[in-house]
Amino acid sequence: MGRMDRVWGPDCLEYKPDRWLKNGRYFPENAYKYPVFQAGQRVCLGKEMALVEMKCVVLAIIRRFNIRVADPTQAPRFTPGLTATMRGGLPILVEEREA
User: Fold this and answer.
1) What is the pTM of this model?
2) Which terminus of the chain is less hemmed in, N or C, by CB atoms within 10 Å?
3) 3-state class of 81 per DSSP?
């Protein structure tokens, strides 16, 4: 669902973080459009904690390593579903940064 053109439009595969900005401010999309944590009265109780934890882990990893796509000429092919998965995975190169 995260990359289906009938949900997000014909440019669903393009990286466009500004699609969630209006007048320079972040406005989240309707929670019912991407139901990973559900929405409404039955929203996941751990949603905010999961997002904070994800940000902390990503920051710790990015600070310690240089991460590059193994073949930058090969575009990832997304597989539609409830979670964002890529057909064939995304091979990367990871190198520890020098202190």
Assistant:
1) 0.46
2) C
3) coil
Position 30: which residue type?
Answer: N
Structural contact between residues 64 and 97, judged by C-beta atoms closer than 8 angstroms: yes
In contact, 59 and 51? CB cutoff 8 Å: no
Distance (Å) of CA 26 to CA 20, 29, 51: 6, 10, 16
Q: How many CA within 13 A on the CB side of residue 57?
A: 6
**Strand spans (E) along 1-99:** 21-22, 25-26, 65-69, 78-79, 85-86, 92-96
- Taking CA atoms, 44 is separated from 26, 34, 38, 49, 71, in Å, by 22, 13, 6, 10, 37
